[in-house]
Amino acid sequence: xxxxxxxxxxxxxxxxxxxxxxxxxxxxxxxxxxxxxxxxxxxxxxxxxxxxxxxxxxxxxxxxxxxxxxxxxxxxxxxxxxxxxxxxxxxxxxxxxxxx
Length: 100
What we know:
mainly alpha
């Protein structure tokens, strides 16, 4: 199956990530969760609702930012491929015969 077919059939999901046990990211996420539990335990019911809403908004901003970065990176990669595949002009002489 091609990459496009895998993407079409949902076999590729760029947003899915597996955390490696013991990785720096895994350790940081565990610390965030532990501190969040301590923090929210001290909040009133109203404070917990406000924090939950705040957390949702931060997650949404992160999602939008990651999606934007993915799109920009993908477009940059496509532009690089187009430039590589084009015969483009160069001011440098060809090093290997037959390459342009």
